[in-house]
Here is the input.
Amino acid sequence: MSTEARAHRIIVVGGGAGGLELVTRLGDKLGKSGAAQVVLVDRSPTHIWKPLLHEVAAGSMDPNTHQLEYVAQARWHDFEFQQGELTGIDRARKTISVAACVDLDGMELLPARELPYDTLVLAIGCVTHFFGVPGAAANAIALDTVAQAERFRRRLIAACVRAQNGGGRVGADGRPCVDVAIIGAGATGVELSAELRNTAHVLSAYGLHQLDPRRDVRIHVIEAGPRILPALSERVSTETTKLLHKLGIDVFTAERVTEVTTDAVLTASGKRIDADLTVWAAGITAPPVLATLGLPVSRMGQIVVGPTLQSETDPDIFAFGDCASCPWPEKQGTVPPRAQAAHQQATFLYGALCARLAGKPLPAFQFKDLGSLVSLGHFSAVGSLMGGLIGGSMFIEGLMARVMYTSLYRMHVLALHGAVRMALDTVTHWLRSKTSPRVKLH
Ligand SMILES: Cc1cc2nc3c(=O)[nH]c(=O)nc-3n(C[C@H](O)[C@H](O)[C@H](O)COP(=O)(O)OP(=O)(O)OC[C@H]3O[C@@H](n4cnc5c(N)ncnc54)[C@H](O)[C@@H]3O)c2cc1C
Here is the structure.
């Protein structure tokens, strides 16, 4: 038997905000030295940091310049990449099942496979939850993938061009108009609404439509709760509401959506909000496959893990990021599904898995809440809240908040590529922003 065949085999399923950081570091440390065989499984061939998706949807970010190919990262960081969707685990035989991959023409690229593991890490994130609202899944666009975000952007441009040329809706004032409804006023919905206002201006500036970008491109944010940004402080919510009003964005609170049709959103209070395009940003749930694995799951369907991030019933299976329900004793709850948490858990698991391989006891994960930041695009200051770092919480806005908001992504790039490439990436994207249209136009 070769040395490689005997090496401990760590499989990480899901190369997202957390999984790709973890597998990169494990590859650098354990894969390179041959101390372990490190494998990444993802259903997609490329990675994008999910919090960028609202910018992709608004066209203010070209996904091609921010996507990373897993095979290349695997080559550079000494891990193996297997493309395919996790469909099951045989815990007795310690294997996972991965579905076959097909190409764009539906031809099989890779067959269904079984992959053996010694340690398995699940990091497959979350998916949009439509809560069974009639018409929502069929008529609203979710923002889980680049393909969905790109579809939204193309439909937005088409709606503006159509309206301009008399093929769209006409408002009460007799002018052609485009209505965009965003359901859910959490960070994603709010950030998208601000980005879209910018997009409407840029599309107009490039002559793609001659609609008035503020009056004729109408953006409606609809929230079931009593205020926007329910997970953040009252102050952040109030300040952000003021900024959205300044941007001419309609904010409806305490409006529970009861139906989404092809051209409107209906609410429990009897409102009908016109919508040429509807985005669903109102909730997430765990991927259904997790409930089929025979491991304890939370009410939301996440894998229940203890402080070491191991499954409650199988010490060889770890889970983290959005797909795990991890205790947060300080708040008597669970760690929130955020990129910040996935990043901290990836850093923790890197150390924990190295310790485990060396036969040392596992430490306990402690989440440090560094606060939450909400980007309001190019127009205005960024409302934000910062906690843990200063031993309390503080409201910040403006340039400082904007810098901190982008630093979360920079930390991700740093974890994937190191400081030199992160600096080069930052400069490259800055130069590109000076030589390309501010919105992707096609
Ligand atoms: C539009 C948007 C904006 C956001 N903004 C913020 C923000 O500003 N700040 C913040 O902290 N958080 C934000 N979030 C949340 C943040 O993106 C998530 O908390 C974070 O990405 C979770 O990381 P993860 O590694 O757990 O999962 P993900 O990053 O979702 O990665 C999951 C990976 O698993 C793969 N996968 C899924 N199912 C399977 C399967 N069955 N088999 C194989 N592979 C699979 C996927 O392809 C993906 O690569 C935002 C989310 C969205 C959608």
User: Anything to note?
Assistant: The pocket of flavin-adenine dinucleotide is lined by residues 13-19, 41-44, 47, 50-51, 53-54, 85-86, 123-125, 143, 187-188, 287, 289, 321-323, 337-340, 342 (CB under 6 Å).
